[in-house]
Specification:
Length: 773
């Protein structure tokens, strides 16, 4: 008690105004402490507010006590103040019990001792209240229980977000509010909103057309079909110049409302803040840590401050859901004009441009802009954007892998990270790791086709062909109308040797999606590659010209030049027609001069490949030099392709040792095509006189079961069979020589007249070798 007594005597020496100053400063410090503790421990928001109320309530007590204790007796201090000082002094020296009149001072109400004790009691009540609230919340007892603590929901249970209902004159506001709510919920480590691709897959199985509006009733049916625990619905209503945004969480099967609340926005500019506040209330009700909720950026900081930009973004999402890629890209470009720092729109634009073969320069610009504005993204999107940037722009695949793994540490069911990490691992040759990631993604969400595709890639790398076929069958069954399914289905049929089935898949792709120039280009290029692989070069050229027309229709001169380079390489490599190939390229460059294209859209390396195969290595060197003048930071992602192009040029120049070195460097870096340059490596070893290495690499090439090998085969498969037959014949391995000569005969049995002499030579070799045995 001695410290308390000393404190009381010290207070007695203060004037009334001094006491007030000390109290106000102490109160401010107490409120800062309350805020800090609330944030650190995840206490409810009302703790600092109640602390403020208690401090305000205590203020009159402090002032009254100061008046009574300081206002009587002056310097000499007689009366109550003097009595208390004397009492305190006696307590310190062990004084005897005071006289009755002295004891009466203890019973005064307005004493410093009582004021301090009142503050202590208030603090204790606040602490007990906060602790009780948190305990009841965690235990699932009473009105403070969360849906998780009551067992209604579990952490990471998937819920469906329905499109908000619109009751305003602005038809796009509800769409924007839906996207805002989706973004807000994506910040949560507890709430797991079903992805749009997942929902689209369920809608397909329900017989709905792409782009079907996900109103509350449809969303509820999706949840019931998939066994999901809850549906979030909402609406936006006009109220004068402002709006009321409301949301509800409903258990799908009984239809029980688990939570409902609303927020008011004074006008459209406040809609983002209102949606943010509403989403935070939902997350709190579900049971997410208040500390985690507060740690998130405000929604406006994580998205855009422009409602008009958000409207465009929302429309773009709807367009992509309907497979209208051109419209989606155009809407995103409008959104970023309205808000140049709209990181979500930049990111979506970059991904769309990359996925559907738009200009490389625009893709890099968009992904770089998203990366530069990544602080305006949610945690999930920030990690994904960083990873995409390093994989697609900077070429630092290790950083991309680190970003995806960091995201999975926080959100272990984030299928975008699992899916893309699977692809990175496959491209890097870690097929077992890729399989693990793809299977995890597929187990979480079986409605997204890329999860099947990436699992197929991982299994292909391990040569587990029967499993690849099983996955392809599941994909075909689940996505009968998906354009990528047609494309991959054609590739799988091709690997099985079912050329008719492959062509049927590619033609079905064009038939069903030919209104899209993007899919038209993909489909005709695949059919052209299939025809060229089988030695039907005239038919291949006619189909490839359809691809060229689609590129021109999409205003993609870089893609046009690349596809024409493929045609010219076939002329030079398979037919020895270098002059016609050179003429085709010259005419194309007159139409689209390289210096008229953005640097990153100039197909320098494709042209270098053509000139090397056409026997004009000096022009190939000029193309490589042009490529090397591009900023290294922008072309780092194509480092492997640069090594490969150098290897092909050096082969044409006769420097086989250096060619092999560069092709080995290509093989060592992560790449998107595991087979593209393997035949060139075999050819370099062959020309260098290293026949054993050439045979081993040719064998590796022809035996690889990649479903996308068709495009490489259109140049190299026939010549690889032919050369393996020759090399095995030279070795005296008659059985292997016959096998590969026979493969060439079968592959090119319907080849154009220009290739038939080589087919006849292979047939005669089979007959001669068979007789010799």
């Amino acid at each position: 008690m001695s410290r308390l007594n000393r404190l009381i005597r010290e207070v007695h020496r203060r004037s009334l105004w001094q006491v007030l100053s000390v109290y106000l400063i102490s109160s401010w410090i107490a409120l800062q402490v309350a805020d800090t503790v609330t944030a650190a421990l995840g206490l409810p928001d009302w703790v600092p507010q109640v602390a403020l109320v208690l401090l305000i309530a205590l203020l009159p007590v402090v002032l009254a006590t100061a008046f009574v204790q300081e206002g009587v007796g002056g310097a000499g201090r007689t009366g109550p103040a003097a009595t208390i000082e004397a009492e305190a002094a006696e307590a310190e020296v062990g004084a005897e019990t005071p006289e009755p009149e002295e004891r009466g001072a203890h019973h005064q109400v307005l004493t410093w001792r009582n004021a301090i004790m009142a503050a202590v009691v208030m603090l204790a009540l606040l602490t007990v209240s906060a602790g009780g609230y948190m305990g009841l919340r965690t235990a699932g007892i009473g009105p403070f229980a969360t849906l998780m603590s009551k067992g209604v929901l579990k952490e990471r249970d998937r819920i469906v977000l329905a499109e908000f209902e619109n009751h305003t004159s602005d038809s796009l506001l509800a769409m924007a509010a839906t996207e805002l709510f989706r973004t807000a919920l994506s910040q949560s480590a507890v709430v797991n909103v079903a992805g749009q691709q997942f929902v689209a897959g369920v809608l397909r199985r329900m017989g709905n057309e792409p782009g079907t509006a996900l109103n509350f009733d449809v969303a509820r049916e999706v949840a019931i079909r998939e066994g999901l625990k809850a549906v979030v619905g909402g609406e936006i209503i006009s109220m004068g110049a402002g709006y009321v945004v409301s949301a509800r969480l409903v258990a799908p099967e009984p239809g029980e409302v688990l939570w409902t609340d609303s927020e008011t926005a004074r006008d459209s500019t406040a809609l983002i803040d209102a949606t943010d506040a509403l989403s935070r209330k939902l997350r709190e009700r579900i049971g997410e840590s208040l500390k985690t909720i507060r740690a998130n950026e405000p929604l406006e900081a994580a998205t855009t401050g422009s409602l008009d930009a958000l409207r465009k973004y929302s429309q773009a999402e709807r367009a992509f859901g309907s497979a209208d890629f051109d419209k989606g890209i155009a809407l995103l470009e409008e959104a970023i004009v309205l808000d140049t720092a709209f990181a979500m729109a930049w990111r979506k634009l970059g991904i769309a441009l990359g996925n559907y073969g738009e200009q490389r320069a625009r893709e890099v610009e968009a992904l770089t802009k998203a990366y530069n504005h990544r602080d305006r993204l949610t945690d999930r999107e920030r990690y994904i954007t960083v990873a995409t940037y390093h994989r697609s722009v900077s070429g630092e695949w290790d950083k991309a892998t680190t970003a995806y793994r960091a995201l999975l540490d926080i959100y272990p069911e984030e299928t975008t990270a699992l899916n893309n990490l699977s692809l990175i691992l496959s491209n890097g040759g870690d097929y077992e790791g890729a399989e693990e990631m793809a299977r995890r993604a597929l187990a979480i969400d079986s409605s997204y086709y890329t999860h099947y595709m990436n699992l197929m890639f991982a299994l292909t790398g391990q040569r587990r062909i029967e499993e690849v076929l099983d996955i392809q069958e599941r994909m075909d069954r689940n996505f009968p109308g998906n354009p990528w399914n047609r494309f991959v289905g054609g590739g799988v049929a091709y690997v099985q040797g079912d050329y008719a089935g492959a062509e049927t898949s590619f033609r079905k792709l064009i038939e069903d999606y030919g209104q899209s120039l993007t899919w038209q280009a993909f489909g005709y290029e695949a059919i052209a590659a299939l025809a060229a692989t089988r030695g039907r070069l005239g038919l291949a050229e006619s189909h490839l010209r359809e691809t060229l027309a689609a590129h021109r229709g999409r205003h993609l001169p870089g893609e046009y030049l690349s596809s024409l380079a493929e045609l010219a390489v076939r002329e030079a490599w398979l037919l020895g027609e270098r002059g016609r190939g050179l003429l085709l390229i010259d005419e194309a460059l007159d139409l689209y001069p390289l210096d008229s294209l953005p640097e990153l859209d100039r197909p320098y390396l494709d042209l270098a490949w053509f000139y090397a195969m056409a026997g004009v290595p000096e022009q190939a060197r000029e193309m490589i030099a042009g490529y090397e003048r591009i900023d290294p930071a922008l072309r780092r992602a194509d480092e492997g392709e640069l090594h490969a192009a150098r290897g092909v040029v050096e082969t044409a120049e006769g420097d086989y040792e250096e060619a092999i070195r560069h092709l080995r460097l290509w093989e060592a870096v992560p790449k998107t095509c595991a087979l593209c340059w393997v035949p060139n490596m075999a050819r370099a070893y062959d020309l260098a006189g290293e026949a054993d290495s050439a045979v081993a690499i040719y064998e590796r090439y022809v035996m690889h079961p990649s479903p996308f090998r068709l495009f490489t085969d259109s140049f190299y498969l026939g010549p690889a069979y032919e050369r393996l037959g020759d090399l095995y014949e030279q070795r005296g391995d008659t059985t292997s020589a016959i096998r590969y000569y026979a493969k060439l005969v079968d592959l090119w049995k319907d080849a154009d007249p220009e290739l038939r002499p080589r087919v006849e030579a292979a047939r005669r070799a089979v007959e001669a070798l068979s007789t010799d045995r």
